[in-house]
Design a protein that fits this description.
It is a single chain. The chain contains seven helices and eleven strands. By secondary structure, the protein is α/β, with parallel strands linked by helices. It has a six-stranded mixed sheet, covered by helices on one side. Strands 5-6-7-9-8 form a five-stranded mixed sheet, covered by helices on one side. The protein is globular. The two termini are 26 Å apart. It binds manganese (II) ion (MN).
Length: 243
């Protein structure tokens, strides 16, 4: 039975050497998998596909090697790397997923996404999300010089850290209503996402039917661990990757 892999929230950055090394080892270990889904916040920030420094080039080359070896590669946007575009997916020979994507994994239909769109109590973030996903806003941003975009990205990260420090715990999590609505609209009973950094499998009822929500974890520099997703002959499950 083919093996399908899911990761999210690596927040790759030259400031995280252990996560970066763990990422390259993970891609080597992924060799032979049928597919790898990267469900957002792969990078701590992404200011445009033209930002091809040595770090980004090395990441792209590693993905390209995996996809050239026969593993299908899929990327979803996160709230950090929403500017990942055609240039990146072309360089990695990957496919960019829509915000809410229904996929078939070994006969099981599954809704996959980053998950930020489910945090509907966070009005401030939802307003930023609407703005940052607007085509005209993105075009305007991408027309700015690279060094200016890098400065804006670092300002946005500082702002986001300051905002989140004052937010209640429940505001930073998904709302059950948004989860139910997304599953109903997709017509499936299984959801897999990242974003909240709260890895867990949640069992619940959706209109009287058993449903499941798999939450991937973020990649932790200090402990060298990440909760990832695997689907194979044993079904879909979460697994800890130690690096
Ligand atoms: Mn996120």
């Amino acid at each position: 039975m083919p093996r399908t892999l899911f990761i999210s929230d690596l927040h790759l950055s030259p400031d995280l050497p252990r996560v970066t090394a763990g990422f390259f080892r993970y891609l080597e270990a992924a060799s032979g998998a049928a597919a790898l889904y990267v469900l957002g916040d792969l990078f701590e920030s992404w200011v445009g596909d033209d930002h091809r420094d040595d770090y980004n080039n090395a990441v792209i080359a590693a993905f390209r090697q995996l996809s050239d070896s026969g593993t299908a590669l899929f990327f979803a946007h996160g709230n950090r790397d929403f500017l990942l575009g055609a240039g990146f997916v072309e360089a990695t020979a990957a496919t960019l997923l829509p915000d809410n994507a229904v996929i078939d994994v070994n006969g099981q239909r599954l809704l996959v996404m980053h998950g930020d769109q489910l945090c509907t109590l966070d009005a401030k973030y939802m307003a930023f999300r609407a703005q940052s996903r607007d085509a005209a806003w993105q075009q305007d941003m991408l027309q700015k010089p690279l060094d200016q975009r890098l400065m804006i990205a670092s300002m946005l990260r500082m702002q986001s850290r300051a905002n989140n420090a004052n937010k209640a715990e429940n505001i930073m999590d998904v709302t059950p209503e948004a989860v139910h609505q997304a599953l109903r609209e997709a017509g499936v009973h299984t959801l897999l996402h990242g974003h909240t950094h709260r890895p867990q499998v949640h069992d619940f009822l959706l209109e009287g039917q058993p449903a499941q929500r798999f939450v991937l974890g973020d990649w932790r520099e200090e402990s060298g661990e990440a909760v990832t997703g695997v689907a194979d002959a044993q079904g879909l499950r979460l697994e800890t990757w130690r690096f």
